[in-house]
Please model this.
Amino acid sequence: MAHSATNRLISRAFLTAHLLTGNAEQAERVTLKAIGSWNPEEESEEALFQNVFDAAVRSPVKLKSEPASAYLPAELNAVLRLSPELRSCFVLRVLMRLPSQVCARLLDLRSDSVDNYTCAALRCLGAVDSRLTVTVANAA
Model:
């Protein structure tokens, strides 16, 4: 795998871990753990992201979520402000496009709970988006 492609893949893995955990420090540990157990010569990118998911959702250290991160756009910072259940379901279902049944297995939830949490996250993010739109419009 080319160096720049590897860097992009690791960046995506870190971003995914950050959104799942809600904390950059914990995301760094999760990403390093996932990379350490991934063999790029024999395993696909999907295997790396499976390692990220497993490490993030099963991570024993639960640090406080960070309300904002300078490197993330406002829309993704809004994701960090969601509760852990809503955030995990939103990241896995919407951003990573995993089927409800896969998310349920990863998060140890029922499929209908995943769907309910995902819908609730979308409603919360929709409310944030409308507030952002009003703020930007008023600033202009």
Observations:
- The chain has a mean pLDDT of 84.
- The chain is about 70% helix and 0% strand.
- The two ends are 45 Å apart (CA to CA).
